[in-house]
Specification:
mainly alpha; 0% strand; 360 residues; single chain; globular; 15 helices
Length: 360
């Protein structure tokens, strides 16, 4: 019953999040001082001479003459039916437009996530428990995490495309043109993941069961990979889920910077053209993907930590050695032989007068 309740609660939170994203986007775009009727007629922000009769017909057709709350309720009614509306600029249904641009964005996001995971895992394993490499890695992480995406993209373009002439700048439809955009998105994300992973690994390496693993003669790298890495998986997966939202936001800048097609570039162009249905559609798709990724992350907790299957939530304390790995063996407590004439279990430091008598 608890599992069913967790699923229903997750579904309810997801629906509320989608509703909130659609509502905020709808009213935020309505605050822009541009008449949507001009965008529908192709004028955009240019207030060209259009007859009042034509504007009145457009407003009546798209219900723009209704009060704002009525427009919002009509919009929610279309969303419930699965209708994202028609694009003002391209005069096409929004759903096919989003589907046509989803492929390049999915490829870019998956490549960026893969690079970020590989960089953070390798960096975390190699620097955890080592003071000097950790200091150097922390400095690099700070620079990458605080660097704007567009500036990092310009630097990568300058180094790899202009100076080295190794990679193309513009999209040419092959894998080589995907490297620079994916690297631009992956480096800041990898810096955040690496910070969380190394801190979690350092905490796990201080646990008592790690001493037992070291006593068996395992090297620092073997201890980190075989024992500590699993203990650091839960916070690492949590940060990975949150970082996916930053990837979706950075995709808009990256796709525009490298002239790539995709949902991010479609969003930028639609905001500039006041194409409200397309903007809301992109926001809803991005929100749904973010919710789906974080749901998968929550479900993966049970695979790396058995206690999640019992409590239903991520733990705050490290795993016990016997639960985390079957290789870790807890060292037995040393047994101190009693001095002659001392009762078993008695403190040998106490005077004989304070020691209980032992019957013969």
């Amino acid at each position: 019953m608890s599992a069913v309740w967790r699923v229903l609660r997750r579904l309810g939170v997801s629906l509320i999040t989608l509703l909130g994203a659609a509502t905020l986007t709808f009213f935020a775009l309505r605050l822009v001082p541009v008449d949507p009727a001009f965008a529908i007629l192709g004028a955009g922000q240019q207030q060209v001479d259009i007859s009042p009769e034509v504007l009145a017909v457009v407003r009546q057709e798209y219900h723009l003459d209704e009060p704002l709350i009525v427009q919002y309720l009509l919009y929610l009614g279309r969303l419930v039916r699965g209708d994202l509306g028609m694009s003002y600029v391209q005069e096409q249904p929004v759903a096919p437009l989003l589907l046509a641009q989803a492929g390049p964005t999915v490829a870019l996001a998956l490549a960026a996530v893969l690079l970020a995971v590989v960089i953070s895992l390798v960096g975390g394993v190699l620097t955890a428990g080592r003071r000097l490499p950790s200091w150097i890695s922390s400095g690099v992480e700070l620079v990458l995490a605080s660097t704007p995406v567009f500036w990092l993209g310009f630097v990568l373009m300058l180094v790899f495309a202009v100076w080295l002439r190794a990679l193309p700048i513009l999209d040419s439809g092959d894998l080589r043109s995907l490297v620079l955009p994916a690297l631009t998105l992956a480096l800041p994300t990898a810096a955040l993941l690496l910070q969380v992973l190394r801190q979690s690994l350092d905490d796990a390496l201080e646990q008592p069961f790690i001493l037992s693993a070291r006593a068996r003669g395992l090297s620092t790298l073997a201890v980190t990979v075989r024992h500590a890495l699993r203990h650091a998986a839960v916070p690492y997966l949590t940060m990975l889920g949150f970082s996916f939202g930053a990837l979706l936001g950075g995709a808009a800048i990256t796709e525009t910077l490298f002239s790539r097609p995709g949902l991010g570039r479609l969003l930028v162009d639609s905001v500039a053209a006041q194409d409200i249905p397309v903007v809301i559609g992109v926001v809803l798709v991005a929100t749904a993907v973010f919710i789906l990724v974080n749901t998968i992350v929550d479900l993966s907790y049970a695979l790396v930590d058995p206690r999640v299957r019992e409590t239903g939530r991520a733990p705050t304390e490290p795993l016990a050695a016997g639960v985390a790995t079957s290789d870790a063996v807890t060292a037995p407590e040393p047994v101190v032989d009693a001095e002659p004439g001392t009762a078993p279990g008695a403190d040998p430091a106490r005077p004989a007068s304070e020691t209980e008598e032992v019957p013969a």
